[in-house]
Amino acid sequence: MNAATTVGVIGAGRMGLPIIGHIAKKGFAVRVYDIDAGKRTAVEERGARWAADLGALAAASDVILVCVGYDRELRELLSDKGLLKDTRRGAIIAVLSTVHPRTVQELAQQGVASAVHIVDSTVCRGGKAADAGTLLSFVGGDAEVVARLKPVLAAYSADIVHTGAVGTAQVAKAANNLIMWACLVADHEALALARHYGMDIEVLRQALLLSSANNNALKHWGTQTMAWAQDDMAIVASMADDCGISLPQSGVVREICRTLKPRRFKLDEYGR
């Protein structure tokens, strides 16, 4: 791929918008579609062109990055009557959304008839890393397709890991999220306990970052919005059900996250 390659991006939200800017800065021609036309100015300020509709974006793009929110939206977007009917043969559609692995696998099979390569390319490290262009991208798909996609991913990712076949990037993201939310809950409990014993929480936090208790949620304490906690843990629960296995800790973490979100980082209220 070179500077002449056209990249389509669907979704100009918190993660999509900075990704758009990084891709444009690398010399790719970028076309963007979002259902919210009010985002057009922000998109164009980042060097991308606004697409009037999905069909125009699909027809013009060699690679399409999809940043929509949920399984249902993704399935509707990539239906035979949706994006796939206009996407050029040989193009790559990369799903950045966090969804069930089965969803991407089934969509990838639908893409075969249209000679469109559908892969999953989930991202980790959050909004600040998106702003800085230092995201971690997990990519699931055929090695040849992933190799073609990597120059685009490298525009906004500091690290790219080919996790295996289609769907494995979603598995990797689910594992990441399960551990991340469990760490955030553990951080709250540890720091709340220390607060009740009169310890300076920032002194303790800095000390723990030097210890075996170090974790990313603790490092970035106070910045996590928990916007996707419930959705992330619901996907984990569904995956566990599909496998017929019990993940008791993840079930507890899911319930704690539900009640924690409105009181996050308020240590004096934790556990009361």
Largest sheet: 8 strands, mixed
**What is the number of helices?**
12
Residue-averaged pLDDT: 94
Per DSSP E runs of 2 or more residues, the count of β-strands stands at 8
Query: What is the CATH level 1 assignment of the largest domain?
Result: Alpha Beta
Class derived from helix and strand content: alpha/beta
Helix share bin: 40-55%
* Uncertain residue ranges: none
**What is the spatial order of strands in the main beta sheet?**
3-2-1-4-5-6-7-8
Shape: globular
The arrangement of helices and strands along the chain is EHEHEHEHEHEHEHEHHHHH
* Count of folded domains: 2
Please name the CATH topology of the largest domain: Rossmann fold
CATH architecture of the largest domain: 3-Layer(aba) Sandwich
Q: Could you tell me the radius of gyration in angstroms?
A: 20 Å
Report how far apart the termini are: 56 Å
Bin the strand percentage: 15-25%
CATH superfamily label of the largest domain: NAD(P)-binding Rossmann-like Domain
Quick structural gist:
The protein is of the alpha/beta class and 272 residues long.
